[in-house]
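[[Encoded backbone]]
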Amino acid sequence: MCVAPGAALLNSGPALTIHRCRFEHPGRVVPGAEIRSVSPERKSSLPEGFVGELWLASPGLALGYYNNHEATSAAFGFELEGSDRRWYRTGDLGFLLGGEVFICGRIKDVMIFCGKNHYPQDVELTAEQADNCLRPGCIAAFSTLSGDAAEGELLVVVAEVRDKALGTEACADVVSAVQKAVRMHHGLSCHEVCSRAPLPYRWSH
């Protein structure tokens, strides 16, 4: 979020898990700041518990992006019915529950299959838990366009496997386990599941 230096907007808090999906929980809104869940299409506030784009209003909010009028006009200075404040569009999807804020993901990251929204991190968590041969935190789920317009977007999952699984039948078992888990928990068919060797990591000091 783009705020003035030193502005504190949220207190820290735990996360919420609903139906195996983990929602990051920045915490409660501090006095003076206000967050609403807003329908991105209608630009109207949503009731508690409904996922929408999170809009922010605060005395500590910046006036815009430095030397970037186009980005500023796309995110800052929006109005909401029943409010005289100016709102900043965060681009985050989330919801309010019991006065607390929960983050679902970014609007730009959402994958749409058959008219339904799916968050990559939810699919990645499902894939990660499908088989012990997969390396935690080393999975990516994304959509790609099909050459056939009728098929629309296709789901691809790329996962790193542990060394012991390479070159064995375990790799095929991993792919099968991921496909089954994603189909069971999300109702999605993976166009492709790619298992690969761990990438080398280089730590900077």
